[in-house]
Design goal:
Length: 575
């Protein structure tokens, strides 16, 4: 490609609309332009990176035995009503009516469409296992689109769906995708980690998020410093026993009412009563599906909504409105407590060993002191309901854990029969018996992967692309376009590299050397080749890797062979 005949609109200023470095650099390096909130045009260089990620994904999905197809972006609301998600998906699902007044939506994901296809086309155990994938544009009306391609509203996703006759088959399909994902992100040149994620009703460790390690990541995760346990924050289990101190045999003190005028928060109550946060119990009122539920956690700990949802087996949990809290407890927000409460009550395990604690009194401006389990109230169900903290230890081996941040670029998930039940995707097994197909789903954010790679690989001058996903592998900079010897040397090397299928950008613009160097650094092409007047006269050119500071002088005659070696070396370093 010749720069003079190409389009990479770079600029120097840091764009004020972009908070994170990858977003800034993608704009400055002329890779993307915003159309409107969360919706971007991929400019030619950006598109090249996107296509390279897609090619790697395609190769690895094919290698793993998945089959490519392409489904529509526009989907009938009817199917979503059938699956039940028309009601549950919320406002990320962009809904509209067609001219016949039929409910329609833009696909944020394709479980409904693929399951509809499979229930029509697959009837026998002989047709499975099968795994379909596509690389397609999704639409999610994200509440806060931001960070460029990282969290867009319209974005490209690779999504795959596996179909199996039994659990073992489904687990094998899952493992195959896990392997494929590890290879994909390895090949993209990313430092990543697969972490356990919440599985909802499925249970087991059949949901992993692939996290690109980056301090600017939106997701928090923990990992053990000794064993290989790693999980995202909402999934991370609490080590059994860590919390359960013995109540001991000291007698319980009598229950006491204390006036706490306008004193509501944990901070206010503890300082007012002169107690520590772990002597208090927070009573949080939730709506789980349609039921009001009280969830109890220790004052110094945080409730984990995903764990609460799983313990209750609910589709959806959300904090109750102030009106509902008042109705359920008889008091305004801030004074709820378990004593005398009529709702269902669940509690975190840490509460089991507590003695003489403080709770809300279910009356305005009232708290209770010396509250005790069993004597004063009872719990319907105990469970691990809280968020992990840096004080906790690894739930597997008990060693120290570390907190970190990451960017979720991929997600593998075992679905079980969730969709095959609602959408009635059945098959006949070997005995001629009708059974539900067992499914899995597997997503990768393509644009987010490019953004995450930049977040991980850049310096003050610009992007340092991992070679497999760089818009170009090599760039040649002839520094004086009026010097025939310079142009000739550059052209010769350019032709030879093209002949060897190297992806090369020839910067044949009539620009100053400084401009060419700056743009090459900004766009981050991994191998830079420079020819200047003096070098050309002496039969020499210069090679430099974007990731290193040293330059190497080579003879023009041998240059293309050495460049090819360098390119190969960069790919090999990622194996
Ligand atoms: P998140 O928690 O970041 O919203 P998600 O759980 O909604 O992600 P999935 O439904 O599992 O994501 O989608 C699969 C993949 O698609 C994600 O791993 C991510 O890489 C990508 N993705 C999801 N939402 C977006 C978005 N708004 N913009 C860009 N990529 C996205
Ligand atoms: Mg999301």
């Amino acid at each position: 490609m010749r720069y003079s005949n190409y389009f990479i609109p770079t600029y120097k200023e840091v764009p004020s609309e972009a908070e994170v470095i990858s977003h800034q650099l993608m704009l400055r390096a002329g890779m993307i332009r915003k159309l409107t909130s969360g919706i971007y045009t991929y400019l030619p260089a950006g598109l090249r990176s996107i296509k390279k990620v897609e090619d790697i994904i395609r190769e690895e999905m094919n290698r793993a035995g998945a089959i490519e197809l392409l489904m529509p972006a526009v989907q009938p609301g009817e199917l979503w009503q059938e699956s039940g998600r028309w009601e549950y998906y919320g406002r990320e699902l962009l809904r509209f009516k067609d001219r016949h007044n039929r409910d329609t939506c833009l696909g944020p994901t394709h479980e409904e469409v693929i399951t509809d296809l499979v229930r029509r086309e697959i009837q026998s155990y002989k047709q499975m296992p099968i795994n379909f994938y596509q690389i397609q544009t999704k639409f999610r009306d994200e509440i806060r689109p931001r960070f460029g391609l990282m969290r867009g509203r319209e974005f490209i996703m690779k999504d795959a769906y596996s179909f199996d006759v039994d659990e073992e088959g489904a687990n094998r399909s899952y493992e195959a995708m896990y392997e494929a994902y590890s290879r994909i992100f390895q090949r993209c040149g990313l430092r990543f980690r697969a972490v356990e994620a919440d599985t909802g009703a499925i249970g087991g460790s059949y949901s992993h998020e692939f996290m690109v390690l980056a301090e600017t990541g939106e997701d928090q995760m923990i990992n053990c410093t000794k064993c290989d346990y790693a999980a995202n924050l909402e999934r991370a289990e609490i080590r059994g026993g860590d919390d359960r101190f013995e109540a001991g045999n000291t007698p319980m003190k009598p229950l006491e009412e204390v006036d706490t005028p306008d004193i509501k928060t944990v901070e206010e109550v503890t300082s007012f009563l002169g107690i520590s946060e772990d002597q208090l119990i927070k009573t949080l009122i939730f709506v789980a599906d349609d039921e009001v539920v009280a969830a109890l956690v220790r004052g110094d700990q945080e409730l984990n909504e995903a764990k609460l949802k799983n313990l209750l087996g609910a589709q959806m949990v959300e904090l109750a409105s102030p009106e509902l809290v008042a109705e359920a407890t008889g008091a305004p927000m801030g004074f709820a407590g378990p004593v005398g409460l009529k709702t269902k009550m669940v509690a975190d395990l840490a509460i089991q060993g507590m003695r003489d604690f403080v709770t809300g009194g279910n009356r305005n401006d009232l708290h209770l002191k010396n509250v005790n389990l069993a004597r004063d109230f009872s719990i319907d169900r105990f469970g691990d309901l809280r968020m992990i903290t840096p004080k906790d230890s690894c739930p597997r081996c008990g060693e120290e854990i570390k907190f970190g941040r990451g960017i979720e670029v991929g997600h593998v998930f075992k679905l079980g029969t969730k969709y095959s039940q609602t959408l009635k995707a059945l098959f006949l097994d070997e005995q001629g018996k009708e059974r539900h197909i067992i499914m899995g789903c597997y997503g990768i954010g393509v644009g987010r992967t490019v953004a995450a790679a930049i977040e991980q690989n850049h310096d003050k001058d610009g992007i340092i692309f991992p070679i497999p996903i760089s818009p170009f592998e090599v760039t040649i900079l002839p520094l004086q376009m009026h010097d025939a010897a310079v142009v000739e040397a550059a052209e010769k090397t350019y032709r030879e590299l093209l002949d060897h299928h190297i992806d090369v950008l020839m910067d044949d613009r009539d620009e100053r050397a400084g401009v060419k160097f700056k743009d090459a650094d900004l766009v981050g092409i991994p191998v830079r080749v420079t020819v200047g007047s003096r070098g050309a006269k002496e039969g020499q050119m210069e090679i430099k890797l974007r990731s290193e500071s040293e330059t190497m002088i080579v003879s023009i005659r041998e240059a293309s062979a050495i460049i090819e070696e360098k390119v190969k070396g960069l790919y090999d370093s990622l194996k």
